TrEMBL record:
It is a multi-pass membrane protein. Keywords: Cell inner membrane, Cell membrane, Membrane, Sugar transport, Transmembrane, Transmembrane helix, Transport. Residues 272-495 form the ABC transmembrane type-1 domain. It comes from Pseudaquabacterium pictum. The gene is malF_1. The keyword Transmembrane helix applies. The complex is composed of two ATP-binding proteins (MalK), two transmembrane proteins (MalG and MalF) and a solute-binding protein (MalE). Part of the ABC transporter complex MalEFGK involved in maltose/maltodextrin import. Probably responsible for the translocation of the substrate across the membrane. The chain crosses the membrane at residues 7-28, 34-54, 66-86, 271-298, 310-331, 351-372, 474-496. This is Maltose/maltodextrin transport system permease protein. It is found in: Cell inner membrane; Cell membrane. It comes from the Bacteria.
Length: 506
């Protein structure tokens, strides 16, 4: 009983630590002004306490870790992706509405005038500006307290005498920088001067003034600016969009853009068709090559089978981020060994990275090389479960190797291999690593406005829209990612329905 009791106490200790962690996370989220996340962490802590204290919920202690993993690694990221796909989030719309408005209100106009300044301490902890304008005239401000600098502009007057104290050094100015940046000096020319550097002030007048929550006024001409909440832009009186834009909800506009705008629909259909073809062909090629090699190295009369198995397994043992750049060098059109051999034997130098058909053939060949060892190992394991008597009976009947392959081997391994083939299809469907390291989507298509290449899969196409495009349209990329998730989820549901256990025959 002691080991069991000790185990139970260990479980309770882990649960208590989890509760304390959830409570600490709730406090941190609350301090970070995220009340929703704080409430979620608090609810998690309450759930953990209920599981630890309630006997009726005892069985859920074993289910909860899996549910939390699904929520944390699947539901939460997918929900976040879906939420972004319903907005206009991009590099041109990074800020919130309030922050974009604040950026516009902080803009200033300048006539190019400025003055060099020194800041001198005076009695009572006060400070005074001593300035020299571009004409060489000296000016000084009234004494002020740094803590109350943000107020009415300090008027400047001609400086009669030289300052009696030494000016503050750069370190002291940096320490006072927040107060000095909020200070304005009223110049004799009617302009307002603000801090431009640690040695100079420049005339800076506000460019815009806020009228109401959705209207600004341009102080240069008095014309209004209005917030276009549907597009996430501030627009001037002529309808021109001003930067920066702001995030806003657009509903299903990104999905309508994918399927309704020919600029996006045609590339999407092309990439989708190639993705399905790539995943299907790679699954068939890797399975076919792995099956043939597995049958060959499982032949009892073959000497040195273990050496062959080890040699054929090596492509799977080398990490893909090492193998793929090696193949990229081998297929180099000018210096690659493959083209050098082809040129020597046949006098041709194929354009592996410039011709769309050849680039796709290269991608299929490289991924087949990387994937066949996995299929070979699986088939070798399944072959061990096939009784030798079946092959002996087939030999007595005069059947050859092909008959054995199609009449015995394939029918017996088809059902256990089917779920693994579906999983391989799904993995190839989202094979970003291969495309990113081998071709980067090349050759690029020149007939579209969207960054897309002939070898781009949906995963790499989405990545280019999100990070490599000049606009970096994160919302559109999230919409495509959501569609890819739905396609893969549909494959998973289909897999569960087609390959669920059959009821025993009566």
């Amino acid at each position: 009983m002691k080991p069991v009791t000790g185990w139970l106490w260990a479980v309770r200790g882990i649960g208590a630590l989890a509760v304390l962690g959830a409570l600490a996370l709730s406090v941190l989220m609350h301090r970070a002004s995220a009340p929703g996340w704080a409430a979620g962490a608090l609810a998690l802590a309450a759930l953990l306490v209920a599981l630890m204290l309630s006997r009726r919920l005892y069985a859920w202690r074993y289910v909860l870790p899996g549910l939390l993993a699904v929520a944390l690694f699947i539901v939460l990221p997918m929900g976040f992706t879906l939420a972004i796909s319903l907005t206009n989030y991009s590099s041109a719309h990074l800020l919130s509405f309030d922050r974009a408005t604040a950026v516009l209100l902080a803009r200033t106009d300048s006539q190019g005038r400025g003055m060099d300044f020194r800041l001198h301490p005076v009695d009572g902890g006060q400070l005074r500006f001593h300035l020299v304008d571009d004409a060489g005239r000296a000016w000084q401000s009234a004494a002020f307290q740094p803590s109350t600098a943000a107020g009415a502009p300090l008027p400047l007057q001609p400086a009669a005498d030289a300052p009696a104290s030494a000016p503050l050094d750069a370190r002291a100015l940096v320490a006072l920088l927040p107060q000095l940046q909020a200070l304005a000096l009223a110049g004799p020319d009617g302009l307002a001067y603000r801090l431009a550097s640690l040695q100079r002030v420049a005339d800076q007048a506000p460019r815009y003034r806020q009228v109401d929550a959705q209207t600004l006024q341009d102080l240069r001409d008095g014309r209004p600016l209005r917030a276009d909440l549907a597009a996430g832009q501030w627009r001037d009186a002529d309808g021109r969009a001003l930067e920066p834009g702001f995030r806003t909800g657009v509903g299903l506009a990104n999905y309508a853009r994918i399927f309704g705008d020919p600029r996006f629909l045609q590339p999407f259909i092309s990439v989708f068709a190639w993705t399905v073809s790539f995943a299907t062909l790679n699954t068939l090629f890797t399975f076919g090559l792995g099956l043939v090699l597995a049958v060959a190295v499982s032949w009892p009369a073959l000497r040195g089978r273990h050496v062959y198995r080890l040699a054929l397994f090596l492509p799977y043992a080398v990490p893909a981020f090492i193998s793929i750049p090696v193949f990229r060098g081998l297929f180099n059109e000018n210096l690659g060994e493959i083209n050098l051999v082809l040129d020597m034997l046949f006098g041709v130098r194929p354009g592996w990275f410039s011709d769309a058909t050849l680039a796709r053939a290269m991608v299929l060949a490289v991924n087949t090389w990387l994937g066949y060892p996995y299929m070979m190992i699986l088939v070798m394991g399944l072959l061990q479960a096939i009784p030798d008597e079946l092959y002996e009976a087939s030999a007595l009947a005069g059947a050859g190797p092909l008959t054995n392959l199609f009449r015995i081997t394939l029918p017996l391994i088809a059902r256990p291999m089917a779920p693994l083939l579906v999983a391989s299809f799904a993995a190839n469907f989202n094979n970003l690593t291969l495309i990113a390291l081998l071709t980067e989507g090349a050759p690029d298509r020149l007939d579209t406005e969207v960054p897309v290449g002939a070898t781009d899969l949906l995963a790499s196409y989405t990545y280019r829209i999100a990070f490599n495009d000049g606009g970096q349209n994160y919302a559109l990329a999230c919409a495509i990612s959501t569609l890819v998730f739905l396609l893969v989820a549909a494959l998973a549901v289909l897999h569960l329905r087609l390959f669920r256990p059959r009821p025993p025959a009566r």
